[in-house]
Specification:
This protein is an alpha/beta fold. Helices cover 37% and strands 20% of the residues. About 3% of the residues have low confidence. Bound molecules: adenosine monophosphate. The site of adenosine monophosphate has 17 residues, from helix 3 and strand 6.
Length: 297
């Protein structure tokens, strides 16, 4: 049974948020929603911040019905990673989703999504092998597999993803193209704290000192972008400086700083116009990523 979070008044009923734990329930709800027009999906791992809420609002602005999935997907975490400790707060997430005008939340347990062992996975080759793919082997296979499952379960007309996870976005775009999903992929710009730090559920891991230090990621990316916009064509030198700027922060342990061509995430040539500047670093137990894009004339 779907729980109705607002019972009673007519207004409450009209604004009610449907919360589904099983695939059968969410399929029934989506069937009903589709009667009033197209349905958009916002896949998340929960513990909402303003970045998630912006995706939902954007989806809501463009589509009559929005479904949000909340699922911390074990398949995309490595054995030494933070699957068990990843922050979770379903009650708070449901209240925020409701306020944002979301029609339904799909929040399955791991058993519902993966009953027994997983024998079928989706691999988006090459795009999954660079940047985060080097230090998180299997991560994008986990992402591509769960997103494929969510697309098949909900069959949305559109799905909204954050530019914050730029590599994930390219992986999903390619997945949709290669497997012929009839789903519009909408990218939403990164939502940042006032000092520039990209919002992330993992920011809660930061101590006050690490939180202050973490702004180095965005500052260094902006400085690198400015050099390119000012006409610097030696991208290896820009990349080196980007890495040095982050490594100069004592609380940062740099994982990578890279400049790649979009959309294929290949080493840029002089002909490539759209570039991705992407970084990953650890601050204490928080592994943070960030990126900016540059259009070169
Ligand atoms: P997550 O719950 O971290 O898996 O993120 C769910 C979705 O929200 C993904 O499409 C992310 O790219 C997006 N997202 C996360 N943080 C931000 C942010 N700061 N700005 C915009 N989108 C974000």
């Amino acid at each position: 049974m779907c729980q109705n979070s607002a019972r009673g008044s007519l207004v409450g009923m009209l604004k009610s948020l449907r919360v589904c734990k099983t695939i059968a329930e969410i399929r029934d709800v989506v069937k009903e929603l589709r009667r009033s027009g197209p349905v958009a999906l916002v896949p998340t791992m929960g513990y909402f911040h303003e970045g998630h809420l912006t995706l939902m609002r954007e989806a809501r602005r463009r589509f009559p019905s929005v479904v949000v999935s909340i699922f911390v997907n074990p398949l995309q975490f490595g054995p030494q990673e933070d699957f068990k400790t990843y922050p979770r707060n379903l009650e708070r997430d449901l209240a925020l989703a409701r306020e944002t005008g979301v029609a339904a939340v799909f929040a399955p347990e791991v058993e519902e999504m993966y009953p027994g062992s997983v024998l079928t996975c989706v691999d988006v080759e090459r795009l999954s092998a660079v940047l985060c793919g080097c230090t998180r082997p299997g991560h994008f296979r986990g992402v591509a597999t769960v997103v494929t499952k969510l697309f098949n379960i909900i069959r949305p007309d559109a799905a909204f993803f954050g530019q914050k996870d730029a590599q994930q976005l390219q992986v999903i775009r390619r997945l949709v193209r290669d497997l012929n999903f009839d789903i519009e992929i909408v990218a939403v710009p990164t939502v940042r704290e006032p000092d520039g730090l990209a919002m992330s559920s993992r920011n809660v891991y930061l101590s006050p000192e690490e939180r202050r230090a973490a702004v180095v990621l965005y500052r260094s990316l902006v400085a690198a972008r400015e050099r390119i916009l000012a006409g610097e064509s030696d991208l290896a030198a820009v990349e080196e400086q980007l890495a040095a700027d982050i490594a100069a922060e004592p609380l940062a342990v740099l994982e990578y700083a890279a400049i790649l061509a979009l959309p294929d995430l290949t080493p840029p040539t002089d002909e490539d116009r759209e570039l991705l500047l992407a970084v990953a670093a650890r601050f204490g137990r928080a592994r943070l990523i960030d990126n900016v894009t540059v259009w070169r004339e």
